[in-house]
Design a protein that fits this description.
By secondary structure, this protein is α+β, with helices and mostly antiparallel strands. It has one domain. 24% of the residues lie in helices and 34% in strands. The chain is built from seven helices and 15 strands. Strands 4, 5, 6, 7, 8, 9, 10, 11, 12, 13, 14 and 15 form a twelve-stranded mixed β-sheet that branches. Strands 1-2-3 form a three-stranded antiparallel β-sheet, with no helix packed on it. The radius of gyration is 26 Å and the shape is globular. The protein starts with a helix and ends with a helix. 29% of the residues are buried.
Length: 348
């Protein structure tokens, strides 16, 4: 890990000595003083999507490195993020809580990242468009969200590949005359997982994960360079590969069960049991970009997450009670009208 002094020197403009930050619109570093662009492309960019093999029976050989920089520690959610170059915020990107500075901990080296492509202004536009499309939203919601705080952060993820040799047992239902009966079946199958995206931090909530999940393309990965996160917060990787595989256990189990249902090809498949032998594990430690819009509605903190790659938005929102009441009344009226019409028709 480079020292803070070396990193700071790399982010100084060669023309005027000013501070450079990464600008998503230009896809490069830009000097804040004179506007000079500094390209970040290298000949090694195409190799950034490389995956690394993992043997669960061997000792992990990926050591942590000591980070000499300071981190912003959130006193509310406990999140730790680092800034390369000048810190642009004194609030937590995850929960908007207050932060204090402390010494950085040892962390695993990030292998690659996908740089921000969506500028902050566009992220705010995507957020406001998402809010306007929300059904039964309060009338004042758009104005409140427009005043919210947007924070850009690179969040830690894993990607995992594996091959699964599965033996399974399951039940399914079939119709016999007028009743449904249960049958048992057993079988074997082989299936592969490719680039399963797994959060590498407890601070990456399902909302944040969903904000980035559908837009991952390994061809967009770039080798980790400090310049890409200059001006943004970033959470470091602290999980071992074994930790990452364990955190993916429940999602992988659901995917395997769904594939077994497809393999059985019957209706009402249930009581699924299986054994699987996992081989060919490959992984990446990566950072992915998200914008998080923090706002408060009637005293409750909420957030909208915008993918920093293509602007897809997901979020938390309140409902208008009077709009919901009006819709309920409308549905009831329509139901009653249909019932009356049906009853009247029954007399003829």
């Amino acid at each position: 890990m480079q020292s803070a002094e070396v990193l700071q020197k790399e982010l100084q403009c060669s023309k005027c000595g000013g501070q450079c930050t990464y600008q998503p619109a230009q896809q490069c570093l830009v000097c804040e003083s004179c506007g000079t662009p500094v390209p970040l492309e290298t000949d090694a960019d195409e190799a950034a999507s490389a995956e690394f093999p993992y043997d669960p029976n061997a000792v992990e050989a990926d050591p942590k490195t000591v980070d000499a920089s300071t981190v912003h520690h959130c006193e509310t959610c406990g999140g730790d993020v680092v800034f390369v170059g000048r810190a642009l915020s004194e609030r937590c990107a995850y929960c908007d809580g207050p932060v204090v500075l402390r010494e950085g901990d040892a962390a695993f080296q990030t292998m690659a990242l996908i740089p921000f492509r969506v500028p902050q202004g566009d992220a705010q536009d995507y957020t406001e468009a998402w809010v306007k499309d929300r059904w039964a939203a309060p009338n004042d919601l758009s104005a409140i969200v427009a005043k919210g705080r947007v924070a850009g952060i690179y969040v830690p993820f894993w990607t995992f590949d594996s091959t699964e040799a599965i033996e399974y047992w399951a039940s399914y239902r079939v119709r016999r005359g007028k009743r449904m009966v249960t049958r048992r079946t057993t079988g074997s199958m082989s299936t592969q997982f490719n680039d399963l995206l797994v959060p590498a931090s407890p601070h990456v909530t399902p909302l944040i994960r969903d904000g980035i999940l559908h837009d991952f393309d390994p061809r967009r990965l770039r080798p980790f360079r400090a310049g890409y996160i200059a001006g943004f917060a970033a959470e470091q990787h602290h999980q071992t590969v074994e930790d990452g595989l364990w955190s993916n256990k429940d999602d992988k189990d659901l995917l395997i069960r769904n594939r077994i249902k497809t393999q059985v090809g019957k209706s009402g498949v249930h009581n699924i049991f299986y054994d699987t032998k996992t081989t060919g594990i490959h992984y990446r430690r990566i950072l992915l970009p998200v914008w998080i819009m923090h706002y408060e509605y009637q005293g409750k903190a909420k957030k909208v997450v915008v993918c920093g790659i293509d602007g897809r938005a997901y979020g938390e929102r309140p409902f208008s009670t009077w709009k919901l009441g009006g819709l309920s009344a409308l549905v009831s009226s329509v139901t009653i009208a249909i019932g009356v019409a049906w009853g009247a028709g029954g007399w003829f």
